[in-house]
Write a structure and sequence with these properties.
The complex is a heterodimer of chains A (223) and B (88).
Chain A: E1 3-8, H1 15-24, E2 28-33, E3 44-47, H2 68-77, E4 81-85, H3 87-94, E5 101-103, E6 111-119, E7 135-142, E8 146-148, H4 151-159, E9 163-167, E10 178-182, E11 188-191, H5 208-222
Parallel strand pairs in A: 1-2, 1-3, 3-4, 4-11
Antiparallel strand pairs in A: 5-8, 6-7, 6-9, 9-10, 10-11
Chain B: E1 2-11, H1 18-26, E2 41-49, H2 53-68, E3 74-80
Antiparallel strand pairs in B: 1-2, 1-3
Classes of the chains: A alpha/beta (223), B alpha+beta (88).
Chain lengths: 223, 88
């Protein structure tokens, strides 16, 4: 059975949603405390949303120095699938595992709302089960979600097909409407929206399943 | 020897600064005319133990780049003296 590790930093708050999404989709999942120095036996790792280390200094700035991050960097370099959701995305950019940075939202307001995303690339481990151009309704919940990067990085993103998801109506001032990016290889993905909160039509949308089911299937085929 | 050090972190040129822009827009309403190019940032104050001023500055510059700033979007500068904790 596919096994997913969900990392908990002090201040994470979406770890149960992420765990529940994984087990709902038939995977085995457990938590990894941030001070763990080695991770073994996992097919994929999720860095969940929240406010790791209080978001002090900058979101993700202190989490990147948590002991588990060294092991996650090794796991990613070996081709392991790593998914950062919201705060997890911020942690991955601070750790240098994904390019760019997340800045305060344009308008300086905390945004908590459904958004429509457009699948921009199906090359990443998160979007392999989706169709390019497909629209997905998935909520956002963040203050620092405006994706930003310099021109050279942006050109690389486009050239290497690393933009994974875009907002249909840019809510936060992200460059080029970017909602999620991957590394060059496509095995490390970060996105600000919360697919684990879009698992049931009873709660507004189950479009998150398109992404997370694809994520799990990609792991099975990689194993 | 202990040196008082101030590290200032600001957004790099070309990076949107919604906080600075909002402050700038608020100023005329309060009667402060002619204030432009407002950039919001952070300052950090600390005491650094080093053999001399250059050593303190070197350490401050390194920690500013490694932790206090995100070089992707921010610049940092360190100076010795005139910190919240004293004047060298």
């Amino acid at each position: 059975m596919t096994k997913i590790g969900v990392v908990i930093f002090p201040g994470s708050n979406c770890e149960y949603d992420a765990l529940s999404a994984m087990t709902t989709l038939g995977a085995e999942a457990d938590f990894i405390w941030h001070s763990t120095e080695t991770i073994e036996g996992y097919d994929g790792i999720i860095l969940p949303g929240g406010f790791a280390h209080g978001d002090y200094l900058r979101p993700g700035a202190l989490a990147r120095f948590s002991p588990v991050m060294g092991a996650i960097a090794d796991f990613a370099k070996a081709g392991g699938a790593v998914l950062g959701i919201c705060n997890g995305f911020q942690v991955l950019t601070e750790a240098g595992l994904l390019p760019g940075a997340l800045q305060k939202n344009r308008g300086l307001t905390f945004l908590c709302q459904p958004t429509t995303l457009i699948v921009a690339s199906t090359r990443s481990v998160l979007t392999r089960g989706a169709v390019k151009g497909q629209e997905l309704s998935i909520p956002i919940n963040h203050f620092s979600g405006a994706y930003t990067c310099d021109d050279a990085t942006y050109e690389q993103l486009i050239e290497n097909d690393q933009v994974v998801l875009r907002y249909k109506d840019n809510p936060n001032g992200s460059r080029d409407d970017i909602a999620g990016v991957s590394n060059v290889e496509g095995n490390v993905v970060g996105l600000m929206p919360h697919p684990e909160r879009a698992m049931s039509t009873l709660l507004g949308s189950d479009d998150g399943r398109v992404l997370l089911e694809g994520f799990l299937r990609a792991l099975v085929s990689a194993a | 020897m202990n040196f008082p050090v101030t590290v200032t972190v600001t957004l790099r040129e070309g990076i949107a600064d919604p906080e600075g822009a909002t402050i700038e827009r608020a100023l005329p309403a309060l009667g402060f005319e002619g204030v432009t190019h407002v950039r919001a940032g952070k300052s950090f104050h600390m005491m650094i133990d080093a053999v001399d001023e250059a050593g303190a500055l070197e350490k401050a510059t390194a920690l500013a780049q490694r932790l206090l700033s995100n070089p992707v979007i921010e610049n940092s500068s360190a100076r010795v003296g005139d910190s919240a904790w004293g004047v060298a």
